[in-house]
Amino acid sequence: MAKQKNAISPTRDEDYPEWYQQVVRAADLAENTPVRGCMVIKPWGYGIWENIRDALDGMFKKTGHKNAYFPLFIPKSFLQREAEHVDGFAKECAVVTHSRLEADEDGILQPAGELDEPLIVRPTSETIIGELFARWVQSYRDLPLADQSMGQCGPLGNAPSSFFTYRRIFVARRAYCTCHS
Predict the structure, then answer these.
(1) 47-58: per-residue pLDDT in tens?
(2) Which of 11-15, 71-75, 168-172 has the weakest average pLDDT?
(3) Percent of the chain whose pLDDT exceeds 90
(4) From the CB of residue 9, how many other CB atoms can be counted at a distance below 10 Å?
(5) How far is CA 69 from CA 22, 49, 51, 179, in A?
(6) What is the dihedral of CA 156, 159, 164, 169, to 10 degrees?
(7) pLDDT at 168
(8) How many CA atoms lie within 13 A of 172 on its CB side?
């Protein structure tokens, strides 16, 4: 008997990661961008993401969590607080050192407005979340505090080009609960 011909090769059983990438391409869910390791999620793919996001949002809200959106940037000094935790990926963090671009005498854009302290692209940093929770919780009466956040993360590096699994830019969702016992 002849082997069954599939629209996508390899099959899921033969090579799941490659099969998954082929499905994403064939379904036109995402495509690569000029920024290495980054993708654009196209309307069909984004629709799927919205359904996932909304289902997760409902699950979190049933547990009493409320939505919050934390900053994309943290001061470099905050990253230093996470020194032990970030040791494995600190070299892959993007650093913002200037606040604007200005054209030089040849019309070439150059960084200008150096920041007093560099900023790290780190939207899931527990240091910024802890800093803010410390402001919000002044007494046991402020507890429990249950927040969940969603944001784009941007670790850099030589990430393999694969859709949705590990990219330079990905969407992260985290839930935090601070309780009083």
Answers:
(1) 998 898 899 889
(2) 168-172
(3) 27
(4) 11
(5) 33, 18, 19, 20
(6) 10
(7) 47
(8) 18
Q: Which residue has the higher pLDDT, 62 or 84?
A: 62
How many Å is the Cα radius of gyration of the chain?
21
CA 99 to the chain's CA centroid: 22
Query: What is each CA distance from 63 to 7, 147, 178, in whole angstroms?
Result: 42, 10, 13
Side chain identity at residue 28, one-letter code:
D
Q: Report residue 104 as tokens.
A: 């030089």
In the numeric block, the tokens 């302290």 are attached to 117
Q: How far is CA 174 from the centre of its chain?
A: 10
Residue 1, SS3? coil
Residue 162 has pLDDT above 60, yes or no: yes
Distance between CA atoms of residues 75 and 20, nearest Å: 37
Question: What's the token pair of residue 163?
Answer: 């859709």
Residue 140 CB: number of other CB atoms within 10 A? 10
d(CA 80, CA 9): 46
